[in-house]
Structures are given as C-alpha cells and as structure tokens.
Amino acid sequence: MTAENKKLFDYLVKEVETSGLPREAQEEIIETIGRNFDKYKKESSDQMDMTSLLHVVKEDKNYKDSTDLHLLVSAPTRGQYTSWDRQRIADALVKEAQLKQEEADDIAFTVERKILGSGIKNINVNLVREIVDNELFERGYQAKLKKQEVIGMSTYNINQLIFANTKENSNIKQNNPEAVNLGIAETILKQFALKEVFSADVAEAHMKGVVHLHDLGYPVRAYCSAHSIEYIKKYGLILDNLSTASSPARYASTLTGHINTFLASMQAFYAGALGLAYVNIFYAPYLVDKTDAELKQEAQYLIFSCSQNAFSRGGQTLFIDFNVHMGVPDYLKDVPAIGPKGKYTGKTYGAYELEAQRFLKALMEVWREGDANGQPFPFPKMQLHVDEQSFTDPKQRELLEYATKMSSENGAPYFVYDRDKVNLSMCCRLKTEITDKYVIEHPESMRFCGFQNVTVNIPQAAFRAGRTKKGDVDEVIKEIEKAMDICMKAHVEKKKFIKDLMEPGRPMAQVGKIAADGRPYIDLDQASYIIGTIGLNEAVQFISGKELHEGDEPLRLGLKLISSMYLKAKKLEEETGLKVVLEETPAESTSMRFAKVDLQEFPEAKDYVRGDMESGRVYYSNSIHLRADAPVDITERIEKQGKFNNLIEAGCITHVFLGEQRPSPESIYNLVKRTWENTQSAQIVISPEFTFCRDCSTLSAGYKREANKPGAPQSEIKNKDVIWYRCPTCGFEEEAEYKGAQDNVPLSEKHIICGDKAKGGCKKVIKTNMEDMLKNGTLKKIEKVNN
Questions:
Q1: Distance separating alpha carbons of residues 704 and 721, to the nearest angstrom
Q2: What is the rounded CA–CA span in Å between residue 641 and residue 681?
Q3: pLDDT value at position 594?
Q4: Which of 751, 718, 720 is nearest to 628 (CA)?
C-alpha cells in the first residue's frame, strides 16, 4: 500500500470508528476495507461497476412510523435502500452549502472514491454525511457544515446521566430510569432546538446569556396551562392517547380519577405547570348533603392522588396549582352549574356557595395536616384568591382566618389578590386575566396557555450599555429592548414550529385540533407569549451605585426600566398581533446561569453577583425583587415589590421568609389585610422553615442539624426557597449547626456555629435573634457574640 493510499485507508478507518455503529459492525467494515482497498483507487470501469453494487440507506423525512428507529432495525435512521448516485451529493452541496457546481462535483467524486475504496456494499446515509463533512472541513468549508451535523451524546455523558443524579430540577426526587430517559432526551433536544427551531442569532443570544430560552429541552411542547374541571365534567375522558373513553363522572371520587388521568395526559404536551380553576366551586354540585367526614375523605383523595401522580417527565410529580375561593365570585353566581353525568343541575353556582365553602374547609384541613409524616404538600399548591369580600363577609373571613392559621404552621396558602380582575394562577406566579365573556359564561372553555417564556438578562444589558457610557439609562433601555426583540423573534419562530406539529399525526395534534367544546384546545393566537425578568436589583446598582431598597431614587430607576419593558411589550403586541406579557421569572437556575455567563464575559460582574464565586454558587436577585437579605422589614418589601406588579401582567409574588419564627395567625391575617389595602401586591406567600429527617421520617419546625431520633443524623431543610446562613466574621455561607436548639430554648438565645475551618468557616459562635429576622424578613441578619 502506497503512502498516499495508507493515508486514505487510515482516514476511512477513523471515520468508521467514530460513526457510532456497534463495535462488531465497525470491525467487519474495517476488515472489508482492508481486503478491497487497493482494488479501486480512481474512477475507472471497475469503479463504475462498483457503483452499481453500492446501496444507500436513505432517510425518509415524510415517513409516519418511527418504529424501526426505536427497534434499531437495519440502520440508526428510518429509511429505504436506494441505488448509489454521486450526483445527489453534488446537488445537495449546491443547494444546501451554496457551492459552485464544479466544486460540488469534485467533492462528490472524492467522497465516492473513498467509499468505493472501502468495499462497503450498503452504507448508511449518516456515514456518507460524515465523509462529506470531513471533506468540506479539509477544504476550508467549515461554515457549510451546519446542515450536515449529527446531534447526539457521548457515551461518557450518557454514563453521567445514568450514574449521577441531576439537582437542576428539584421536582425529580431521585434518579430513576425515566429520569435518565428525560436527561438524554433533553440534552439532545436542546441541541436540536438551537439548530432547527430557533434562528442562529436567537441561539447565539441564548448561549451568550443575553436571553434565556426556558424549557429548551422541551421544544415540541408548550410552556404551561390552566384547565377547566367543567370541561372534564361535561365531556368525560375522550383523549387520543387513551385507548378507552369514559363518560362524564357520576360521583366526586370518579371525577377526581378523571382529573388525575386528564392532567397526567396533558403533562405530555406542556413543559411546565398545570393549573385548575375554581376547584372547590366546580366540585360543589357533587357534594350536596355530604357529611363533614365524607367531605374530608373526598378532599384527602383529591389532594393525595394529585400529589402522588409521578409517572412521566422524568418521574416527577405533576406540577399542579389548585385555584380555590372563599366564596362564589359575582361573575360566576349566575352561571348554570354542571353536575353528575355532565348534566346541568338547573341551578347556578351561586346556589352552591355553602357546599363550595364547606369543601374548601375540608381541603384546607388536609393541606394543614400534610402527608402521612406531617410533611407539607409541595403539590397541588393552594392558590387562595382574596378580594374585598374575603374581609367583609363573615363566612369568608372565617375561612381566611383558618388559612392564616395554616400559613403560620406550614406556609401552604399562596394569597392571590383579585383586584377587580378574573385571574387564574399557575406555575409559581404565572397568572392570566380572563376577559372573554363567553368563557366566563361557559366555563368548560375556560383554559389558558402560556406558550413560552424567554427571559432578559437585565444586568448584562446594563454592562453592555456601560461599555459605551456607564450610567446612561437610555442606552440601558436600548439594550433591553434589543434583547426583547430577540425574545419576540424566539416566540414567533417556536409558534411556527409548534403550528406545524399540530397537523394530524404529529406530536401536538391532540391539543391543536378542535376540542369537544368546538374550540382548539390550544389556540396559538390567543396564548400568552411571556418575557421574563432577572436581576433588576443588580442592574440598578451598576447604573446608580445603589440597590433598590436604598432609597426612592434607585426604586424609581427600577420602575423606569420595567416601565420601558412594559411599553415595549405593548409595542410588540401591536406588531405581531399576539399577547405579550412580562413575568417575574420563577427559575432560580436561570439566575445562576446568567451570573456565571456574565462573570466570563464581563469582568465588572464580579462586583454585583451574589453568592460565593469560589464555589460557583453565584446568582442575580430574582426578577424585580429586592436583594433577598436586604435590611428591610416585611411590609416595606411587599410595598416596594408591589409597585412593579401592575406592570408585570403575567404574575408576581413576594415571599415572606420566616426562618424558625412562627408568627400568630392574627399577625398574618393583619399582614394579608394590610397588603390588600395599602399595596399593589399581586400575591404573597408566608415561607417558614422545617427540618425533615430522612431516616426517621419526622418533620420539625425550624432548622435542626441533628435529627430527633438518636442514630438518625440525616436531615434536610424544607423551605420554598433555599436559605443559607452567613457568618458576619468571615462571610462564610453554609448550612450551620445549632447549639442549644432544643424546643425549650427561647428563639433569642439560640446559637449557630460557623462552618469548619477546613471548609472555609471560622468556628465562631453566632447569635440568631429570630425576632429581628421576622421584622426585617431575612435569615442572614445575624450578629456575633463572644465564644
């Protein structure tokens, strides 16, 4: 074998070894290449004869059945055998890579020579593509390679997913086979989305942290949704993915089963939360003449079954929000009620207010008690709607007072303020206002889709503007608006992609077609297209030198930036005809990703990111929130963050972190009422802290490093958000060990010990005054005492 042929032979061997084929197949191909290589070195009568024997497994993009792909029959791609035709390579290079005809012909000839020289009779189209790609690369056509690139994962990364658990999604409680499948699918589909769904400039903006494309691993789904129990009550279960159908439920327990099946089916079409509207009200016609014990049983079945529905999307529990009301809203009182068998009862929902209130009390009792171990239910979340009647109507006030008692114990209720609007809430803070009168009068059609969320990195916009002129607010706004243009472009591109997927036989066909009520289940023209916000506090600090809580001036600056985003969203609505809304982004991982990306590209970011740069635990403040440990009291935090709520239409929330403190139900009731009367806040939640022992399955109020049961040291902190203790001596941040954490020790006398010196701590004893923490709303304001 000549040196030239040896080089070509080595190249072909390398191509086969990196083809992804099974090892035995690789060895067989390499052996065949070795036997036949010297027979065909140039195009001749022999080479032309060989082309008649060569066949290609060609991809069939219009094929409707992917069974063979999953069975790995014949080849990694579903296709059909076709005769070899070198001209097809040349034509593809002219069409896709925009090469000149003579260049394409030359490359096609070279590729054919290499393949024929191997002696292979049947070649997969992927291997042909790789050989073409290599030839393009060697000739300096790197920019022409994108269309030919194969998306996949290395064996090493697959092993990582199998043997190591991801902590990115806290709803996946532990590693499991379904989580492995999800991890592989997400990794590959993220690559696919950035190459095929979104344009190059959108993908680049995501990779550079200008914006963040949420749920990138779910490109063939919508984001989140609110659904109507009335739809299930009226039409039963008739879903394309079910091989059987169910008539409308006759009993409340059957309705609960239908709801669980329906939501589990719907999770396949959405990447985020599933919300249900007016749960206690729409159940009411099934609960007439039920005893308190029977109501409690129905409530237990509903909450427990929805909290334990964990069979898809990585084996994670369904992310469900229950919207509940303390009375029947005026706009529903005259709406005809649907009862058993999907029939109208002859009454309106106003006539079922007592049953709705009694069922709400039963639901709250279950939420208050928690699961078998007393652990609070993460899902379904309790979205308790509050309006003026909640304080003035005696029965509603009684229910609200019970809710504040729950809140003081386990923080279950989310208090959603309905300020003269018909709102649905889902996905932590996402909400929508219902303005369609038909939907209100026909609640079986009351559903909502948040199509996609794309978040703007506000601090980076400030950094980019600052490179021209630091402190120029108008330039910052221009950079933010450029990022919002990218967000909107991403929305339009994915909308087009999903619309194609709604055609018959495609993944989103079930929710794209006309549903039982005569409307598309997802109407892309009526959905909400969400633009999220991250890091307003740090952007304001970079521009003005002060944080949001440090005076009226920085707060006004923050309001100016968000107001400009609101006006830009309205302009995008006019340009596209779509509903464009701002949201407080609920994804803490996005906050961390933005901070990490900015540290790489913007050196100035090191002075503004939060957390610990050495360990990589860095982040920006969430959305428009004040810094988590800002020295402000609870009322001031709610009031200042509430000023942004009218601008952020898709949803806002203010967390009230309590740590170990347990304020009285009366004080929480007063807080809820003052928030309604004196602020513009859209939603608040009281967030206490718990310790759950993984060994003895006991739940204790507050933070305890040691478990209650001897010999059971494993414990974890239960809170709606992660909280770290910070040492004022050395600045070390970590979970801290309590000294004297027994229940009989007053809160003002409890201590923690800073982490071990080997981990970066100083071992000093720190006094934690929980009463002060309650007042300023933080767990990090702690003072040093003598050891």
A1: 17
A2: 7
A3: 95
A4: 720
Task: Compute φ and ψ for 713, nearest 5 degrees.
Answer: -80, -10
CA neighbours within 13 Å on the CB side: how many for 736? 30
Please, what is the average pLDDT of the chain? 82
Sequence-distant (6+) residues with CB within 8 A of 655 are 684, 685, 687, 720, 721
Task: List CB contacts of 302: < 8 A, sequence separation 6 or more.
Answer: 256, 259, 279, 283, 363
For the stretch 295-353, pLDDT in tens is: 999 999 999 999 998 777 766 778 999 999 999 999 999 999 999 999 999 999 999 99
d(CA 350, CA 359): 15
Torsion angle (degrees, nearest 10) of CA 230, 234, 236, 238: -100
Supply 66's token pair: 């992917």
Amino acid at residue number 255: L
Q: Which residues contact 30 (CB under 8 A, 6 or more apart)?
A: 13, 16, 17
CA distance 356 to 323: 12
What is the crossing angle of helices 45-53 and 101-118, to 10°? 80
Determine the Cα–Cα distance for residues 238 and 257; give it in Å rounded to an integer: 14
Residues 187, 188, 191, 193, CA torsion sign: negative
Q: Which helix (H) or strand (E) holds 25?
A: helix 23-36
Torsion of the alpha carbons at 568, 574, 578 and 583, rounded to the nearest 10: 20
Q: Which letter does DSSP use for residue 549 in this model?
A: T
Q: How far is CA 122 from the centre of its chain?
A: 44
At a CB cut-off of 8 Å and minimum separation 6, what does 105 contact? 90
Q: What are phi and psi of 375, to 5 degrees?
A: -75, 135
Crossing angle of helices 292-307 and 353-369, rounded to 10° = 60
φ/ψ (deg, to 5) at 540: -65, -40
CA distances from 667 to 412, 453, 654, 711 (A): 16, 36, 17, 38
CA distances to 472, 520, 545, 559 from 464, in Å:
11, 43, 17, 20
Element (H, E) at 692: strand 690-693
Q: What is the pLDDT of residues 592-607, one digit of tens each?
A: 999 999 999 999 999 9
Provide the pairing of β-strand 320-325 with 336-338.
Answer: unpaired
The answer on pLDDT for 784 being more than 60 is no
Q: Please name which of 342, 328, 325 lies closest in space to residue 276, comparing C-alpha atoms.
A: 325
Start-end of H helices in 680-776: 770-776
| Contact between 654 and 414 (Cβ < 8 Å) | no
Look at residues 472, 638, 496, 499 and name the one whose alpha carbon lies nearest to residue 557: 472
In the structure encoding, which two tokens stand for residue 594, read together?
């933005």
Residue 786, sorted as left (phi over 0), alpha (psi -120 to 50) or beta, turns out to be beta
Residue 380: cis peptide before it, omega within 30 degrees of 0: yes
In eight-state DSSP terms, residue 405 is H
Amino acid at 196: E
The gap from C-alpha 591 to its chain's centroid, in whole angstroms, comes to: 13
| CB burial string 383-420: b at 16+ within 10 A, e below | bbbbbebbeeeeebbebbebbbbbbbbbbbbbbbbbee
pLDDT recorded at residue 781: 33
The kind and range of the H/E element at 701 are: strand 699-701
H helix runs in 411-513, sequence order: 437-441, 458-469, 473-501, 509-512
Nearest of 720, 112, 699, 74 to residue 373 by alpha carbon: 699
Strand-pairing partners, residue 654, are: 684
Q: Which amino acid is at 743?
A: D
Torsion of CA 195, 201, 204, 209, to 10 degrees: -130
Q: Are 445 and 231 in contact (CB under 8 A)?
A: yes
Query: In DSSP terms, which residues pair with 529 in a beta bridge?
Result: 452, 580
